[in-house]
Amino acid sequence: MAVERATRQRDAIRSVIQASKRPLSPGEVLHAARSEVNALGLATVYRTLKLLVAEGAAQVITLPGESPRYEMAESAHHHHFQCNTCRRVYDVPGCPGDLRRLAPRGFTVEHHDVTLYGRCRDCARRKMHASR
Asked: Phi then psi for 115, rounded to 5 degrees?
């Protein structure tokens, strides 16, 4: 694969993903990166995300029934939390451990994903204030 040259757009997209503390949708990347490059388009975001994944710098986070999100590739295994209200996805550090014991007898677990669902801190606060 040919080495892609750095551009302001690519640098802004990479910077947004690196600074984020959670996986972002392409739309969230676009919105945040436009603070650095106003003329940035969604097609450029998608091309850059594809490039970052191909380089191994970013990884795709896929939750059932949801569009892919992207985060920088990490060495530490972790899981995710999705807010049922705002639909944002957050990293959950760590892992509940060896899940092989949950597999049916004779089955081999090769990989696992754990996703927690509920309300994020912001949405929980809004609901609490609205119920007062």
From this structure: -125, 130
Would you give the distance in Å from CA 50 to the centre of its chain?
14
- CATH number of the 76-132 domain: 3.30.1490.190
CA distance 82 to 12: 25
pTM for the model stands at 0.79
| The Cα angle at residue 19 between residues 17 and 20, in degrees rounded to 5 | 65
Q: Which fold has domain 1-73?
A: Arc Repressor Mutant, subunit A (1.10.10)
pLDDT digit string, tens, across residues 83-130: 999 999 999 988 877 788 888 999 988 888 889 999 999 999 887 777
pLDDT at residue 17 tops 90: yes
Asked if residue 82 lies in contact with residue 116, where contact means CB atoms within 8 angstroms, the answer is yes
**Distance between CA atoms of 77 and 41, rounded to whole angstroms?**
32
